[in-house]
Design a protein that fits this description.
Blueprint: H1 7-29, E1 37-39, E2 46-48, H2 49-65, E3 70-73, E4 78-79, E5 86-93, H3 95-100, E6 106-113, E7 116-124, E8 129-134, E9 139-141, E10 144-146, E11 158-161, H4 167-180, E12 186-188, H5 193-202, E13 207-211, H6 215-227, E14 231-234, E15 239-243, H7 247-254
Parallel strand pairs: 3-5, 11-12, 11-13
Antiparallel strand pairs: 1-2, 3-4, 5-6, 6-7, 7-8, 8-9, 9-10, 13-15, 14-15
Helix pairs in contact: 1-2, 5-6
Bound molecules: D-MYO-inositol-1-phosphate (IPD).
Pfam families: Inositol_P
Family: Belongs to the inositol monophosphatase superfamily.
Cofactor: Mg(2+)
């Protein structure tokens, strides 16, 4: 058998994901003098040459080590798995932050198997922050075990959120903000769903929600959050909601209807 299984299997995958995320981080820290911007689903949704260069580096490195794994990447990398492991990659989560040289953009690499998310790495060089998790093994911030805030009541909750690139969906997201804002401590919009989920995991946020997230936005950060004791669910309206066990039902209720 080419690879070990059980806990060590997860550890091997995590070590690989960490190494590859750090290599991509080094690439991305060398900001280009000029950006090639290509628009995607809307004029607001774009990728730069650095998104594609980072995805290429990550995919090549992962497949060199594990040629039979599957790949799902934000910038189009797609490949079926014959090993049972599929990597879910956001080569720059927080592309708008990256373009404007704001901190918080990151490389998000998750691996899933037949039972769901198995490994997650969110690496944010500008924050000197790396979050990691293996299913059943807890969550870590720069190597130190972390836990979400719990219990927290809705009226004392600091909540992170983000907005979609589609203008019509933003109108609805604006309505949701108007409803929620008077019910909570305050709202934050940092610019990266992956880091937002990790912030819940380490107690820097009490909760996070966003509608329309893609698998690569939440694959790694969602595992970090659940391994830190948070609940992560997606409601009928497509809103992903992440918070500690006491706050989660109240946040779900506040965001429903
Ligand atoms: C985006 C960021 C942002 C969130 C968007 C995502 P990208 O990811 O996570 O915070 O609000 O929904 O699409 O496009 O920069 O990889």
């Amino acid at each position: 058998m080419p690879h070990s299984h059980g806990k060590n299997h997860g550890e091997d995958l995590l070590a690989l994901a960490l190494q590859v995320a750090r290599e991509a981080g080094e690439l991305l820290m060398k900001r280009p003098l000029a950006f090639d911007i290509s628009t995607k689903t809307s004029a607001l949704d774009f990728a730069t040459q650095m998104d594609t260069d980072s995805e290429t580096l990550i995919v090549e490195s992962l497949l060199q080590a594990r040629p039979t794994d599957g790949i799902v990447g934000e910038e189009g990398a797609s490949r079926p798995s014959t090993s049972g492991i599929t990597w879910v990659i956001d080569p720059i989560d927080g592309t708008v932050n990256y373009l404007y040289a704001l901190p918080g953009w990151n490389i998000s690499i998750g691996a899933r198997d037949g039972q769901g998310p198995l490994v997650g790495v969110v690496h944010a060089p500008t924050l000197n922050s790396t979050w990691t998790a293996i299913r059943g093994g807890g969550a870590f911030f720069n190597g130190v075990a972390i836990a979400c805030n719990d219990p927290v009541t809705l009226d004392r909750a600091l909540i992170g959120t983000g907005f979609e690139y589609d203008v019509d969906k933003r109108i609805e997201q604006g309505r949701v903000v108007a409803h929620l804002l008077p019910l909570i401590r305050d709202l934050r919009r940092m610019g990266s769903a992956a880091v937002d989920l990790c912030y819940v995991a380490m107690g820097a946020f009490d909760g996070f929600y966003e509608s329309g997230l893609k698998e690569w936005d939440s694959a790694a950060g969602g595992l970090v959050a659940t391994e830190a004791g948070a609940l992560v669910t997606t409601n009928e309206a497509g809103i992903t909601i992440c918070a500690g066990p006491a706050l989660h039902p109240a946040l779900v209720e506040a965001l429903t209807g």
